Amino acid sequence: MKKLITAALAFAASATMAQSSLQEKRAEYAKIVESGSKAEKDTLAKGLFDVAKTSKDEGDLIFASNFIYGLGYEDAADSIRKEIVRKFPKGVAARDAYIQGFYDLESTKEQEKLFKRWVKKWPMEKVEGDKLNYDYVIASLARSFAAEGDEAKALSYVEQMNERFWRAQGYIPVATSFLQQGDTLAAIPLIQTAINDAEYYINLPKEQKDNKAGFAAVGYPGYVSQLAEIYDAQGKQTEAMQLIERAIALVPEQASRFSGTYFKGLEAAGRKLEALQQLEILYKQGTFTYKDKMKELYAVMNGSDQGVEAYFTRLDGEVIKGIRDHIKEMEVYKPAPAFELLNLEGESVSLASLKGKVVVLDFWATWCQPCIRSFPGMKAAQEMYAADDEVQFLFINTWERDKEYKSKVPAFIEKNGYPFEVLYDDQKDPETGAILATEMGVRGIPAKFIIDKEGNIRYFLTGSTPNVDYIKLEMKELIEAAKMPYKG
């Protein structure tokens, strides 16, 4: 959670008030919270506590309380927040505190009532700067009404969203609900709007592109693919092809993200070789679900399936070579920090107790969707090594946002049937005050470390893929490499 706060603070200035000289030090302070020495953190904490005691500016007080939280003084930060609300009953902190219980309400109707009271007390039109906090709530209401089949209300709420760079987060889930209910007509304009918004930011001059522009563009391939799939289902292959080819021209570096949809249009247009080439791209990335379709296209292209096994042997070799080339970029060699954490049963697990084993650490959180999407693959990788006493997988639960995480994490693991050894990353180093994720240098999750039998970090991976087969291959290459003596 601390990491999330400091990352958010570094992302943008407080949108509801002018920058102060204190807030201009946002990035500097975030760096100290993330990787500063104990002395630097203590000095920063002292200065921020002084600000909390003396400042009469709400923005500075919020700024100080957030960083105080990030430094590990959670209770003190909560007390400061309460004092801010008391001092500024119509201010930003009071506004945010008022809506805090929104997500805990059981019914959409109750949530809507709270929202209406909220905007009556703090009207959106009177807010200076961005209105992202309002959009979070509006998008949630829109998604809920869409899921309940209330199209009119869902649309009325998405139309209230303010921030162009973010509103696809409301539009796309609502559109997806409409599609699930068979209402393609209502879904298409929402997806098209999300595409238009993303293209606006993609087409900005380089000097105008900021973090917001980057965020808006991230989902673009997904939006385009979703609309192209609709066109394909409607028999509009030409429209689908035009949409994808335009997108590829706009973001050629992301061309492979369109392959799963693009090949269908190419095949329908009689461009069999190009269709097969798109599937080859996916195969080399570890998406093996189209193997039967590839065999079919291969036979069409070659007049028979003769040679198809050799064809896939060559492709498999390229997949392995690609993985080996990729993991070379992840190589490190340094001692792993000692740790001793508790598992779900309250038992202590230390790195020292695992000496002589290759240890796979997977840092994750229940709110982290990329983490969760990789779990089927990690489960398959763990099962692949179930009989290998020289390998131990540990899933390090970190950066949880919910104070009730110790009940929610086991429930999540049990619900999904994951046979994972989960450790809570909530033990602070007595000297640095840092949790394990910080000591390991984790800057984002999911993050994975491969530690060799002598306790040295050999590989550090960030990001993830949902491709089960690819994860299995990648983990096998990493683990087997870590079993071998380090050659330098």
TrEMBL record:
Which SUPFAM superfamilies does this one have? Thioredoxin-like, TPR-like
Which terms in the Gene Ontology molecular function aspect does this entry carry?
Answer: antioxidant activity; oxidoreductase activity
Asked if the keyword Signal belongs to this entry, the reply reads yes
Q: Which UniProt keywords apply?
A: Signal, TPR repeat
Signal sequence extent: 1-18
Q: Is Endoplasmic reticulum one of the keywords?
A: no
Could you tell me the superkingdom of the organism this chain comes from? Bacteria
Q: Which organism is it from?
A: Sphingobacterium haloxyli
The biological process GO terms on file are: response to stress
Name of the protein in question: Thioredoxin domain-containing protein
- TPR repeat extents: 221-254
The Thioredoxin domain, residue ranges: 330-480
The record's annotation in Pfam families points to: AhpC-TSA (PF00578)
* Record PROSITE patterns: THIOREDOXIN_2 (PS51352), TPR (PS50005)
